[in-house]
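Long-time lurker, first post. I've been practising inverse folding by hand and with some scripts of my own, and I keep getting stuck on stretches where the structure tokens seem ambiguous. Below is the full token string for one chain I'm working on. Before anyone asks, I'm not after the true native sequence, just a reasonable design that respects the backbone. If someone could post their per-position residues I'd love to compare against what I wrote down in my notebook.
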């Protein structure tokens, strides 16, 4: 069983990337202080220390740690390449009452049963066993009406971001931006299959569209503009899929390079060079005044060996570094062209 996003290669080519601060909040709240990423645990600890208890409790009630469903209205699709938390909070606060009611119905005990959701589970008993009780913090807001749920959720999510994540947001967007560029390069140089494989497990291209492993069958046949791909620094597990006809389907995946968010800072040597090449490649080019291997570079810099290797290959293809073998080691060094660019 799986989700099938039927589309042509041309439709896939119309896909776009976007960065969502709301998604970072939701993925952080889901795993709380058990999150495997150190920076996400730091964000959660900040929120717990600084947020009013009631607002954090509401977010935790909407995004449970012990259940796999959280309402989609908490993560509206970004309209721009990098959304702002203010934009997304406004969209959340304006979510229609019908949408709020439907999404609460899907996951909570005691609410109306949605037949289309029952169909996904095969039978009503299985679906009812899957639903969860509504925590008190959520019940109190639900009693005020669906519009109150939307407004309170938007306020709590924005506050979490501003208190916990915003101090690190510029570094986070730099990491996510590097990942988007890497995926775009993969798409251009090796094709859609290589790019999709790089998003994470559980997602493949079968020639007629994208297939995502799931315990139920769904066919999405309206992805005329491809998919919206959202990298995050906090997502854990297989790629996450959200869909609402006729909106563009979205997949959420874990970005490469998130270790940079808790490893030591690297001083970018030349801002103009970094603007041209990107921070990672500018640092690597600067470091390669003498022969060094991928392992040697990654041991001193806050990037994994695969990340260093990827960026070295880009510099190699551009003729800015050269590669040679010394015994069992493959080493890299700036070329005269790279020296000239660095000096310029």
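-- Answer (accepted) --
I ran through it position by position. Result:
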């Amino acid at each position: 069983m799986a989700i099938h996003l039927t589309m042509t290669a041309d439709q896939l080519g119309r896909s776009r990337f976007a960065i969502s601060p709301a998604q970072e909040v939701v993925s952080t709240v889901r795993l709380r202080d058990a999150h495997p990423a150190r920076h996400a645990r730091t964000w959660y600890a900040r929120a717990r220390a600084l947020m009013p208890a009631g607002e954090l409790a509401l977010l935790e009630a909407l995004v449970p740690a012990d259940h796999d469903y959280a309402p989609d209205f908490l993560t509206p699709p970004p309209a721009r390449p990098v959304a702002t938390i203010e934009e997304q909070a406004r969209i959340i606060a304006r979510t229609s009452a019908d949408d709020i009611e439907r999404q609460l119905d899907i996951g909570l005990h005691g609410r109306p049963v949605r037949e289309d959701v029952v169909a996904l589970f095969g039978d009503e008993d299985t679906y009812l066993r899957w639903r969860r009780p509504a925590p008190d913090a959520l019940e109190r807001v639900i009693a005020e009406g669906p519009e109150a749920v939307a407004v309170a959720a938007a306020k709590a999510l924005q506050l979490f971001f501003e208190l916990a994540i915003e101090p690190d947001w510029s570094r986070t967007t730099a990491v996510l931006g590097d990942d988007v560029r890497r995926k775009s390069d993969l798409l251009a140089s090796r094709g859609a299959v290589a790019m999709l494989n790089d998003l994470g497990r559980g997602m493949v291209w079968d020639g007629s569209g994208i297939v995502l492993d799931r315990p139920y069958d769904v066919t999405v046949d309206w992805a005329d503009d491809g998919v919206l791909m959202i990298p995050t620094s906090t997502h854990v597990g297989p790629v996450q899929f959200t869909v609402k006809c006729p909106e563009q389907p979205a997949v959420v995946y874990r970005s490469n390079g998130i270790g940079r968010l808790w490893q030591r800072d690297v001083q970018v040597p030349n801002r103009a060079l970094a603007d041209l090449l990107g921070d990672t490649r500018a640092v690597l080019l600067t470091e390669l005044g003498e022969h060094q291997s991928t392992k040697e570079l990654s041991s001193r810099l806050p990037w994994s060996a695969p990340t260093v290797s990827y960026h070295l290959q880009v510099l190699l293809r551009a003729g800015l570094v050269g590669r040679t073998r010394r015994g069992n080691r493959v080493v890299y060094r700036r070329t005269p062209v790279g020296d000239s660019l660095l000096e310029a």
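A couple of notes from the structure itself: The first helix runs from residue 9 to 13. Residues 263-343 form a domain with the Arc Repressor Mutant, subunit A fold (CATH 1.10.10.10). Happy to go over any region you disagree with.
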